Amino acid sequence: MTHLSTPAAFSVLQRPQICRKSLLSGKGRHDTANGLVKASVTEILPQVSDETTQLPRGDTWSVHKFGGTCVGTPQRIKNVADIVLMDNSERKVVVVSAMSKVTDMMYDLIEKAQSRNEAYVTALEGVLEKHRSTALEILDGDELAGFLLRLHHDINNLKAMLRAIYIAGHATESFTDFVVGHGELWSAQMLSAVIRKNGTDCNWMDAREVLIVNPISSNQVDPDFQKSEKRLDKWFSQRPCKTIVATGFIASTPENIPTTLKRDGSDFSAAIMGALFRARQVTIWTDVDGVFSADPRKVSDAVILKTLSYQEAWEMSYFGANVLHPRTIIPVMQYDIPILIRNVFNLSAPGTLICRSTDDENDDGPSSSSLVKGFATIDNLALVNVEGTGMVGVPGTASTIFGAVKDVGANVIMISQASSEHSVCFAVPEKEVKAVADALASRFSQAIAAGRISKVDVIPNCSILAAVGQKMASTPGVSATLFNALAKANINIRAIAQGCSEYNITVVLKREDCIRALKAVHSRFYLSRTAIAMGIIGPGLIGATLLDQLRDQVHYVC
């Protein structure tokens, strides 16, 4: 059994001694034994089998991921269990997030405790009550008693940890990750219990026992697949089953310190699980019918895309489309595992399939839309322009520019450079542009004084519009069509960028022009319908004939 290290100050924590009656009633939740015992994840895990079973990897496995909205209420947890049971795959892995809003509640606990706000105690009671009331509605018998025992145990441990944070006035990253990951532990335990109620062989998995990641920055980790596969083999040999409910978002470092997968961690967890199990498919359940050709809040004529290639999904997600985080796609690409985006609230919708592109894939809509699959935008950007005759032919100028940007920790969204090397411009988040401009002014102060660099300009209030499509590559006329649509809409372009892969064309616009530009290009490539009003005054023979013809065409266009 792999034991997880908790922060050193909490190697001994209070263990609750609570009777079953008080658990069910909600009373006695503060009663604990005076003795202290060593806490480990072993105490909250299912019973381990003495037998060893080899993990059968391959396409007998399917992976499902359900976000916090999907398991946000007791009824929704039941609905998720029904979806899992309807899947006729031989073996299933279900990755779940914390219940809706719970992760925010856990972060709020940390914030209150390190601010020395005693309201963290009341807030923790709210977390307890949310999960206790949910369990009372969906579980019964020994399953209910067992879950409530573990829940109270966890709450008491968290209370001791939060008290220490309150005294110290500070929470380390490892403390924070340990606290916020509890929401996933509780939702996985409840969902697995509901699935077992239906007679299905099911175990829940604390992913911290299996997933090993190496933190490479404050907001990014790299999975260690070799170590994770060994951990998974060991876990499965002790708990063989055909349905596994795994916690999303959380993992461990190589030193067994609990950590998280950062932004969109549950999607990333599902993709990693798909790769570890060599699954047939990974299904991401969300609250939309699939991936849209553009943001439907901005473009009313946006359509659901039937298919996307891995590269198209990666490009669209990078440029702000509500698809997946780009890192989610990386683990499944290695094994050609498709990702299906589906709506948990609309099971009749087929969703969007993300897979490796094929020559015979079905196109979405008209021929022009098969070239450009979708459009995405990023707002609240600023364009930084560095120019000067002293930059021409001077090696290392770009390195100096972006070295200064790196030193202030800014994220460069897009880069464009004239072939004359007279200027370099790039887009950064608006909140970071002042630090970038100050750093560049300092770095190039001598060059500016000598006249080698003429200016460092900041152009605020910008947005990026990106057109994405794998079939754009080597297809003449796509750029012309895009720029023609923008010109007809009277949109001025501030900067342009296109990689040699030709998977996307990116333009920088004024922020106030962004939605109008998005509608214009989407209408041009997807032939969006335009409603017009027409009136006929005093129809005679010709007018009546026209009305008859329009009436005959109604069923073709509606």
TrEMBL record:
A GO biological-process term: lysine biosynthetic process via diaminopimelate
This enzyme's EC code(s): 2.7.2.4
Keyword Metal-binding: no
InterPro entries in the cross-refs: AceGlu_kinase-like_sf, ACT-like_dom_sf, ACT_Aspartokinase, ACT_dom, AK-HSDH_N, Asp/Glu/Uridylate_kinase, Asp_kinase, AsparK_Bifunc_asparK/hSer_DH
SUPFAM superfamilies in alphabetical order: ACT-like, Carbamate kinase-like
Pfam family, one: ACT_9
Parts of the chain that traverse the membrane: none
Reactions catalysed, as given in the entry: L-aspartate + ATP = 4-phospho-L-aspartate + ADP
The family this protein is said to belong to: Belongs to the aspartokinase family.
Protein name, entry field: Aspartokinase
Keyword terms of this UniProt record: Amino-acid biosynthesis, ATP-binding, Kinase, NADP, Nucleotide-binding, Threonine biosynthesis, Transferase
An example molecular function term from Gene Ontology annotations: ATP binding
